[in-house]
Every structure is written in structure tokens, then in C-alpha cells.
Design brief:
Strand content: 25-35%
Order of helices and strands: EEEHEEHEEEEEEEHEEHEEHHHE
Largest sheet: 5 strands, mixed
Number of helices: 7
Shape: globular
């Protein structure tokens, strides 16, 4: 699914917020889409936010030259332009509220301390040796609620978790797994329109490898459980926002690049080569572990960092 929320203040300043169930998208696709949507709607490009739910059940948009993928990309872009126009036409007078709720036991730090004192990421290397999570995760779902005159509420939830649990090989609908169920449950139970915005999910998983942590048995059960936290919280968690103005912030940040593992570059390239040619994660990890490479992703980070300079730019919207 793709969702668009249009918000306009009393000065006629408008922002368009998009959320789409994709694993990722090529930056060139997003830049082109933002420009085209801006031209179609008159909303400035800087006022258009695009975010993916990082569904592991959907393609990486704009990154393939395969004909059927290119056709899908074009269709997706058209759909997203269509829903932007629909959202603009559907605006009504509204009050905005903010709130938050703690989602307990549904997302877990995917970095582990092992019984030998070492630490490792989420991988087959954990086995049964994990004794604790390394670090504290963010378990808060931040909420924006818009109550509209004579229409359904619009609810936006910002939470952080890799939604990579799927329904197996017989699940043919493209959704964000946990996110899709959470969305359906909230819209049904609260009679609202719900948009999911993925938070900083790089180190958060929906499942835990610690044996003492009970996790939902299926993505359906887990999506329903997450939604229930929001439903049970009720209206007491919200406070009305008094200001009526929309402000947009966009900055470029200089990020220091870590080159402390450059000495592992030859080994990282070996692991990455095996991973790329076989797609066998276990084989790549078995090769890398004696060489100091924890996983194919660790290898990829070393290779990527080596290609960068001392700093890299990151855009913040």
C-alpha cells in the first residue's frame, strides 16, 4: 500500500506526507517522483516527505532494469501522484493532537552480548549463546491524530522495527507484514485512516533471539498486538496542538565516517564476493568469522566506508 496525507495551515502552506510499503527505493526514483508530484499539485518539493515501511515482502523500487520491474515502478509513481491529488481534494478543517504509547515486547535490539563476552549482530552466529541485548531500544510509538469535521480521523504512527516477518510462501499480497495487519486493525477498531511512518529501525527487529523472550507466533498476531497497545491507550495519551502553522525543516548533516576497520578490507571483499555469488549467508559467515568479519552486512559496511572520504553528507527532513 501507499498512503498520502495532505496538511495545509491557515497560511495555505501545504505538506504532503507519503508512506509506502517497499523495502527501499533508488534515490533517483524518489527525486523524480518528488519533482513530478510538486508539478502536479503545486506543493514545493521541500514540503514533500517520502518514507518506506521497509517491507521485506516488496521490491526495491527503481533499482532494477528488468522490464517488469520498470513497468511496476512507473505504475507505482502514477498511483502515488493520484493519491496526492486525492489527498489534496479530501482536506477538511481539523484539530491536531499529539501523543505517544509504549509498545512493550514487540521490537528488540538486534545486537547481542554472547556468553563469552563478545557481541554480535542478528545472525546465525548468535545460536544459543546470547545472554542479553546490547543497548537499549526505542519502544515508543509517537502519534499524530487529526480529527476532521464530519469525516474519519487521520492517525499517523511513527514506530521503529524491521517489519520482516512474512506469512510464508502462500502470502501473495504485497504489504508490510506486521504493518499491514496493524493498519487494518487500527482502521477497523478506531474507524480511522492510518498511516505508518517507519522510525529509526536499523537496529530493531520484531523478533528476539533470547530464549526467555516470548514473541508472537505470527506476523498477524504481532500486528494485532501492536495495534491493541494504541487502542487500549485511548484518548488520554493525546494533547491538542495549539499552533496552526506547518513548518518544514531540511538540513544537510556532515557525518564522520568510521575507517577503523579498513585493515579488514581484503577479507570483507572476499566475504562480499561469496555472498554476492551464492546468496548463502551461512557460507559467507563461516568464511568471515575467522577473519574478523561478523556477517555479509558487516563486510558490506567495511567496503562501503572505504569508498567514502572522512565525512559523508546525510539529508535530514
Amino acid at each position: 500500500y501507499a498512503t498520502c496525507v495532505a496538511i495545509t495551515d491557515e497560511r495555505n502552506e501545504t505538506v504532503l506526507l507519503f508512506s509506502y510499503d517497499m523495502a527501499s527505493a533508488d534515490p533517483r526514483f524518489l527525486v523524480t517522483l518528488r519533482t513530478t508530484v510538486s508539478q502536479k499539485t503545486g506543493v514545493p518539493e521541500n514540503n514533500i516527505m517520502l518514507t518506506a515501511s521497509h517491507s521485506h515482502s516488496a521490491p526495491a523500487v527503481g533499482s532494477s532494469k528488468v522490464a517488469i520491474q520498470s513497468k511496476y515502478d512507473r505504475q507505482l509513481a502514477q498511483w502515488m501522484m493520484d493519491i496526492a491529488i486525492e489527498a489534496m481534494a479530501d482536506r477538511k478543517a481539523a484539530q491536531m493532537y499529539i501523543g505517544s504509547v509504549e509498545i512493550v515486547g514487540q521490537n528488540f535490539v538486534r545486537h547481542y552480548l554472547l556468553d563469552d563476552g563478545t557481541s554480535v549482530g542478528y545472525s546465525s552466529m548468535v545460536n544459543n549463546n546470547a545472554v542479553a541485548h546490547q543497548g537499549i531500544g526505542d519502544y515508543t510509538m509517537q502519534l499524530l491524530k487529526f480529527t476532521r469535521e464530519n469525516d474519519q480521523d487521520v492517525l499517523i504512527g511513527n514506530w521503529q522495527c524491521h517489519p520482516h516477518r512474512t506469512g510464508g510462501s502462500t502470502k501473495y499480497d504485497i504489504s508490510a507484514d506486521i504493518v499491514g495487519v496493524m493498519r487494518d486493525t487500527l482502521e477497523e477498531k478506531l474507524d480511522c485512516e492510518f498511516m505508518y511512518v517507519q522510525g529509526a529501525a536499523g537496529n530493531m527487529n520484531p523478533t528476539s533471539l533470547l530464549p526467555n523472550e516470548k514473541v508472537a507466533d505470527s506476523y498477524v498476531e504481532q500486528g494485532q498486538q501492536i495495534a491493541q497497545f494504541v487502542i487500549d491507550a485511548g484518548d488520554d495519551v493525546y494533547s491538542q496542538v495549539q499552533t496552526g502553522n506547518v513548518e518544514v525543516l531540511r538540513k544537510d548533516l556532515d557525518v564522520t565516517v568510521d575507517h577503523s576497520e579498513d585493515h579488514l578490507l581484503p577479507y570483507a571483499m572476499q566475504v562480499q564476493s561469496v555472498w554476492n555469488s551464492t546468496n548463502d549467508r551461512v557460507q559467507a559467515e563461516e568464511l568471515g568469522k575467522p577473519l574478523g568479519i561478523r556477517s555479509p552486512y558487516h563486510a558490506g559496511r567495511i567496503v562501503a566506508n572505504n569508498k567514502l572520504g572522512k565525512t559523508d553528507k546525510m539529508e535530514l527532513n
